Amino acid sequence: MRLLLDTHIWFWILAEPARIGRRAKAEITRAKNEVWLSPISVWELLLLAERGRVKLGDEPHQWVATALSSTPAQEAPLNFDVALRSREIMATHPDPADRFLVATALVNDLTLVTADDVLIDARCCQVLANR
Question: Is the pTM above the cut of 0.90?
Answer without folding.
Answer: yes
